[in-house]
């Protein structure tokens, strides 16, 4: 017993020594300066460097503000942000993503930005889509969208020319072109299919157009409240997708993630790729702009293309002690000039109306495809059920069940039944 | 009398283990019995065994397949790591010119991180631009590229090969050291008794280094089960769940679905299985306390 | 068969097997190294190039220019060296004590605690460690990260340490005691010199593990000026995929310190694990 007591004493003593050493670093702060912490989640070394330069510019204009940037590696950043918010560590500006938004709001971590946005001079210069996206959850703007990610079809024109194949304008032509390319043999395939890590967004644009009648409020529901894949047209569309994998894609693509997709496209093995506009930086130094073009996603037999707009942008957490200063920095970051420059550097689509009108960059060249998509009457934007508690688990379930279907381990009917069941239809 | 001093000397290690492994572990185990899902934390409460039943009865991510995958992953990784590591140790036992440089090269895999190994090997195994397919095609062993990681038949084999490559050096080093501790007199006596090299191996070497074998295999088992890095980087458990093991499913639950409750529950299952394994293993190998 | 022919054959088989092991071990390293000195265009070139047309250090230049990789390298080196030293000291103490401890029932329990800690999946303790660290304001503190690192390796290092000391007879200390040494003198003057190789082995093991650790570093450090090499390597994977040029260069550079430690240490590792029993 005595031994135990002395052990505990030693233990407590050592613990206090260890922990006393820990608190030293946090407290230090320059006198008078307001210190803000900015948590970046969509990180890459180049992007982090760019944000740091932006912060330096801001700090030069606002000498009383000091901004600390936290940029964990991309794969861990959302997780770390979640844990940081959960432990009430003070953060002032965080980069919220479309699929983390609901979760952060549920847990009461985000501030309502209505007041700030209403008195912001740029408010009327935003795309209508921007404010819609801001109000995704509970019709309250909990984040200020900064970037849009919309899918388009990238085409290696040099490869298509070689085989005399036209750029497809609808999904049927697209499927046919992929199969024709594959039939040429010699390691030539059609489509850079993605088989793993968050595939459903790319998968859905190839299916939805051939089914149609989709509820813009919920990508997985038809306008009459049903699971639209569970229909004649849905089964046919899914069967065609399986056929596309078997006869139009490299067999290996079932294990392709982002990198393999890009490699397939850059090497020309698969001259078709569906991606967001931030993909271009991946081609740098490897593809000449004359080798490829970008076109809108082909429309399906329904006569429409169904697109999802992914977005992300800054939020102000409840734990922030300086929300006004934080918003001031957000205004700076989201001025049309800074916003457009950031998009040029990083790729995605800007959120301001004026940028599209004033800056030809975003309506020409590679970006023509997106401006066509935005202006086409054939485009319908639909949102994923981001506020459904089932949503976070969907990616893994979709990936494994789709892989099983493509491998022939299950049937189209079984797969649709599992999915309908998952979403509760 | 001295025992008290010994306890004091062990105290720092114990305090560190308690503070940074056992207290967090206790908190983690508590989470396994709560609806600790980051999607909504406002109604956090104890839910008994619900996390466990949810994992075991999951209709699409088949728990039994994950268990079988884990067993296959463990068994073949361990078997070949051990056999090849032992072989390497036997080869290195007799000195030869340049032995230390040579062993530096064959042992370096130990110094790599699992994450880097997974990345590099997934590239080597790539179905289009992978080195292995290229070599096999050049040797005319295959006509068209093999989907090492995309075909469920080969995916598990491929990740296990990678894991074997990573684990051979550990056994190599540990067993080499043990081999060198076998007194030469024992071999001399065996030769006098007319034992050939094979008989020497089984009647002298292995019995003598048995304690090392038992403890390295036990430790390695624990590490292999808890080592998701390679699979996570190479296949992420796919295709169609064919390489999903408990450790990778745990990452999926924690990192992708933010369900810390179910993630921790998988962690508890892992530890329970390892405990059962350890008890049976030590019984079977007749290990007494001196052996471990 | 004549004994000499037999010996020749067995030598040939041995050389052949050694060669197979060497090729299998080196191939991935060769490939990553070759990739790191290819130009970006050549990395993805098809058919594969087994040797670059022109050796290019562009990837290395990029590695040290786009990210402050040099700084991360220093950070990693300092944290890994200090933590491994700490782990070695703690483990030598506890390993020695555990070896000499004579109360057999508690000894069994202590060993169980050591072994059991090896079954803990790191992800089950990640979230709790983060919340503990937040509560005591120890996030973004490198010293605290170093202490956690010691904790993560100390159990195995203690097991290793105990096995060395088991092979060194306690009579050595008894002899020292008769010569008038107290317990600590007998350790420092008599036991330690014999166990130096063993300590080197423990150090190497700790260093390799700590140098490669990724998840705790990501969770427990915030400032980019404090980041370590594995975190930097992981940051080359972004939404836009892996930058293989910098990644391959980074993996090669990250391998250097462990190669050095391992190159110096492997002699001792083997010797350290063997030592005691040869003497005993």
Mean pLDDT of chain A: 89
The CATH topology name of the largest domain in chain A reads D-Maltodextrin-Binding Protein, domain 2
Q: Indicate the low-confidence ranges of chain B by residue numbers.
A: none
Spans where pLDDT lies below 50 across 5 or more residues of chain A: 1-29
Radius of gyration of chain B: 23 Å
The helical percent of chain A reads 40-55%
Mean pLDDT score of chain B: 89
Largest sheet of chain A: 5 strands, mixed
How does the helix and strand content of chain A classify structurally?
A: alpha/beta
Largest interface: B-C, 86 and 93 residues
CATH structural class of the largest domain in chain A: Alpha Beta
Summarize the structure.
With 292 residues, chain B is mainly α. Helices cover 70% and strands 0% of the residues of chain B.
Q: Secondary-structure blueprint of this entry?
A:
The complex is a heterotrimer of chains A (425), B (292) and C (280).
Chain A: H1 2-20, E1 34-39, H2 45-61, E2 65-70, H3 74-86, E3 93-97, H4 98-106, H5 114-118, H6 128-134, E4 147-149, E5 152-155, H7 157-163, H8 171-183, H9 200-208, H10 232-248, H11 258-267, E6 272-275, E7 293-295, E8 305-307, E9 310-315, H12 323-333, H13 336-346, H14 353-358, H15 368-375, E10 379-381, H16 391-406, H17 412-423
Parallel strand pairs in A: 1-2, 1-3, 8-10
Antiparallel strand pairs in A: 3-9, 4-9, 5-6, 5-7
Chain B: H1 2-31, H2 50-56, H3 63-93, H4 99-107, H5 114-124, H6 131-138, H7 152-180, H8 184-192, H9 197-225, H10 229-234, H11 246-256, H12 260-284
Helix pairs in contact in B: 2-12, 3-7, 3-9, 7-9, 9-12, 11-12
Chain C: H1 3-36, H2 40-43, H3 58-66, H4 69-100, H5 104-117, H6 122-135, H7 142-167, H8 171-178, H9 183-211, H10 215-220, H11 229-234, E1 237-238, E2 241-242, H12 244-279
Helix pairs in contact in C: 1-12, 3-12, 4-7, 4-9, 5-7, 7-9, 7-12, 8-9, 9-12
Could you walk me through the main structural features you see in this protein, from its secondary elements to its overall organization?
The complex is a heterotrimer of chains A (425), B (292) and C (280). Chain A is 45% helix and 10% strand. Chain A has two domains: 34-147 and 312-351, 3-Layer(aba) Sandwich (D-Maltodextrin-Binding Protein, domain 2); 152-307 and 369-423, D-Maltodextrin-Binding Protein, domain 2 (3-Layer(aba) Sandwich). Chain A has 425 residues and is of the alpha/beta class. Chain A is built from 17 helices and ten strands. Chain A is globular. Chain B is globular. In chain B, helix 2 crosses helix 12 (260-284), helix 7 packs across helix 9 and helix 9 (197-225) runs antiparallel to helix 12. By secondary structure, chain C is mainly alpha-helical. Chain C has a two-stranded antiparallel sheet. Mean pLDDT of chain C is 85; it is low at 275-280. In chain C, helix 5 (104-117) packs across helix 7 (142-167), helix 8 (171-178) crosses helix 9 (183-211) and helix 9 (183-211) runs antiparallel to helix 12. Chains B and C meet through helix 1, helix 3, helix 4, helix 5 and helix 7 of B and helix 1, helix 4, helix 5, helix 6 and helix 7 of C.
